[in-house]
Structures are given as structure tokens and as C-alpha cells.
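F.,

This is the one I mentioned.
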């Protein structure tokens, strides 16, 4: 069990594009376990490897109240099924304390590998569909604040930089 450090906006390492996982082996399973420990410890619902400074395509999520429904997405691919979108208030463990409305496609299909390297498919809706797109963005070096106005983004950046100076 290991709790990893979570990078915070505007850390430039969050802008790194993650590489595909070549083999789902014990090293990747250890990373997955550590990411769950880190996400549960921080009371998150989703965490991408990018956020713990590992630049491989691994995402963990758990949307359940009881924290007992872990989901693993390795090398996830999202296909947008139609042009319908929905607004959702998003947060991020790398942007602590801030929630803002983001518009994303509503109907998607996700293909990924599980913890054992077996492929599976989902057609998620609601928060699950929002969260997987948010986490896939992390693997591309993208953050939810990138969808906001430059003014809003700059305000969040200034507040977080101030907090990070105080915490050092
Ligand atoms: C992504 O985010 C997400 O600011 C996952 O103080 C969130 O787990 C996608 C968190 C909402 C869609 C909707 C954020 C914890 C956790 C904070 C998270 C905080 C403590 C965020
Ligand atoms: Co996030």
C-alpha cells in the first residue's frame, strides 16, 4: 500500500501526454493498487496516472458511495456516439477546492483493458461518462480548467499558486 503525491495545477508535468501500456504486468497492477490507495485517501472518484507523475495510460475510478466498486481503465479509448452534450460540475484532485461547469458529449462508448489485461467495453451514462472523459483528458495532458474562460483559469491558477507557496 502506498499513497502517491498528486501533482497540482499549474504543474507543467500535468501537460505530459501518456504512453500506451505495453503489457499489463505486476508493475502495472502495483501502480493500479497505489493509485486506488491514493484516490481513496484523497476522497476522489477518479485518478489518472498522469496526476501521480506516471505517464502511462492508466485510470482508476470509483463512483460508489461505499467505495467498493473499483473500475480500472488501461489504454482507454472513447468513441463519441452523437453530438448531444450535457453540462456537469467538475472538480479534480489536481485542482483542489474548485468546481466549474464543463460541457461534454453525453453518449460515448469506452474500450479499455482491465486489471488482468482483458479487453472490455462500456456504454456509460451520467457521471461515469463525464468522469471517464475527464480522466482520458489527463492522459492527453489536458485539464478541465482548459475548458473555462482564460479569466476564470487565471484566477484559479493564482489562488492555487498562493496556496502552494504557503504550504511549502
Ligand atoms: C473527476 O475528480 C471528476 O476539489 C474526478 O477538494 C469530478 O475525484 C469528474 C476532489 C467531478 C467529473 C465530476 C476535488 C476531492 C476530487 C476537490 C475528483 C477536493 C477534494 C475530485
Ligand atoms: Co482530474
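My design for it:
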Amino acid at each position: 500500500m502506498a499513497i502517491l503525491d498528486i501533482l497540482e495545477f499549474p504543474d507543467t508535468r500535468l501537460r505530459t501526454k501518456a504512453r500506451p501500456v505495453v503489457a499489463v504486468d505486476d508493475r502495472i497492477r502495483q501502480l493500479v493498487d497505489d493509485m486506488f490507495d491514493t484516490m481513496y485517501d484523497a476522497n476522489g472518484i477518479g485518478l489518472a496516472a498522469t496526476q501521480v507523475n506516471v505517464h502511462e495510460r492508466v485510470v482508476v475510478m470509483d463512483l460508489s458511495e461505499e467505495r467498493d466498486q473499483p473500475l480500472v481503465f488501461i489504454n482507454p479509448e472513447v468513441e463519441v456516439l452523437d453530438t448531444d452534450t450535457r453540462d456537469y460540475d467538475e472538480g479534480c484532485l489536481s485542482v483542489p477546492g474548485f468546481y466549474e461547469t464543463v460541457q461534454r458529449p453525453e453518449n460515448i462508448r469506452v474500450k479499455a483493458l482491465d486489471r488482468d489485461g482483458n479487453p472490455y467495453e462500456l456504454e456509460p451514462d451520467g457521471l461515469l461518462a463525464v468522469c471517464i472523459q475527464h480522466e482520458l483528458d489527463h492522459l492527453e495532458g489536458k485539464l478541465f480548467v482548459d475548458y473555462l474562460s482564460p479569466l476564470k483559469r487565471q484566477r484559479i491558477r493564482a489562488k492555487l499558486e498562493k496556496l502552494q507557496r504557503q504550504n511549502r
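The longest strand covers residues 71-80.

Talk soon.
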